[in-house]
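# nightly structure sweep
# worker-07 picked up a monomer target from the shared queue
# config: single-sequence mode, recycle default, output format = structure tokens
# input follows
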Amino acid sequence: MMNTNAFRSSFALLAMALCTCAQAGTTKPPETDPAKKEPSAMTQHATGIFDVKLVPLATDAHDGKSPIARMSNDKVFHGDIEGTSQGQMLMIGTPVQGSAAYVSIEVITGKLQGRSGSFTLQHSGTMTRGVGELNVAVVPDSGTGELEGMTGKFTIRIENGVHFYDLDYTLPSAP
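# output follows
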């Protein structure tokens, strides 16, 4: 297993590599019954940039002997999302260089294209010998305020050190 301190120091690099390598998820969305969808709900697109701050956190289990690293994952969003998020990530490496995995949950609070509220994102990233796959989805029924009922998929890309996001989402029609 990788040395825990060395692993934590490379955590941010691996998370960024996963975001850079994995531009689209590979999981197929579940089949839906068009008759059950709200007739006027349309998929919308939001885009912008975000700043991220990753800070190592203590691992509570295994007396510090666990190969699992934990970090806070706080962001400030600009663009179609104006707000902040707070989250936590868990990550593990393997003895094979370039192979690792992470999961993260974050709650975004602010405005999405003028609508106020919050929603939760679930991240699942895997890197196999340098090839990344990243899936980030809006947690079902996590929307609050004017974002209640939101569903969606979030993608991240990093170019020249700048973090970009794209969010394809659906909201129920306003009553």
